[in-house]
Amino acid sequence: MVAVSYHDTVNVLQAAGAPWEGPFDRAEWFELLADAGLPPLVARCGDATLMLTRANGRIEPMRNWYAFTWRARGDNPVLLAAVARSLRAHSHRVTLWPVPDEDGSATRLAAAFRTAGWHVAVDRCDHNHVMPVNGRSFSEYWAGRPGQMRTTLKRKAKKVAVEIHDRFDAVAWSEYEAIYAESWKPGEGDPDLLRAFAQAEGAAGRLRLGIARAEDQAVAAQFWTVENGTAYIHKLAHRESAKPLSAGTTLTAALFERVIDVDKVELVDFGTGDDPYKRDWMEVDRPRFRIDCLDPRQAAAWPALAKRALRVLAPGASAR
Where do the BioF2-like acetyltransferase domain residues begin and end (predicted)? Predict the structure, then answer.
């Protein structure tokens, strides 16, 4: 028998061994979420750890809309199955997303929950566009971009000036917030959390905050971070009034050049979403999965199980 423990604080992660690899895996990220009011439910068994929370009548990932991915820590199938089995005492339903599978995370989690007796459906829930550098310089990468992009940069680049901050700068961040407020983007979900995240990334030297100016006015801004050979594109915005300048294209190209030629990253990650413009910059579309687990032993799960059975029988059903 293996013991599974549950914790209502993320402090337990500080003693959980080697640090996690990405910005949305670290203890500091989960601390930000907890400070923002998301209650942790940390399930641990040996080196297997699932960062969870209770929401919407089920158990869900401890995450928010800023996170590109969510995944379990640990790859031991026995330990993951032990956690999955113990979760039956806590809810009739566990829904996990957006889980990657290029590292086997989705496959391992789905197998663990099936082994533990859950009825599991796995569906693609999102896209993750990335660009493997494959040893190229920025100029070599840029030569492969669509002709219209290259022409736009050649025509418009001289009209804007670009600066890139690798430490948090309060003035630059205020300019980012002002640009975002005047952009096509929806209202910022949690600006205080995002600012705290940017401050922490800046203190660690991982921040790449780009500002593009035209006639001394900030017209476009982008929030990137660099870590463990990967550049993450978190947020980007431009003033609608400055759209004819194509400042966003100029700024994106400058940041690509910085992370490829100076930071020497191996991958650029454009987060989730299938916006058409991402395909112009990126070269690989990786799926993100939703793993929906129902416990057939509990009556509360039966209505959802019945609906699932009907969907599986329908033509073109994608659950697996």
Answer: 150-279
232 and 292 co-located in one domain: no
pLDDT in tens, 213-233: 999 999 999 999 999 999 999
Do 91 and 138 belong to one domain?
Answer: no
Amino acid 16: pLDDT: 56
Query: What does the alpha-carbon distance between residue 64 and residue 62 come to, in Å, rounded to a whole number?
Result: 7
**End-to-end Cα, the chain, rounded Å:** 30
pLDDT in tens, 189-208: 899 999 999 999 999 999 99
Please report whether residue 188 resides in a domain. yes
Q: What CATH number should be reported for the domain holding residue 200?
A: 3.40.630.30
Whether the Cβ atoms of residue 43 and residue 87 lie closer than 8 Å to each other:
yes
Q: Where are the beta strands (DSSP E) in the chain?
A: 5-7, 41-45, 48-55, 58-61, 93-99, 119-132, 161-165, 207-214, 217-227, 230-238, 267-272, 284-294
Inside any domain, residue 319: no
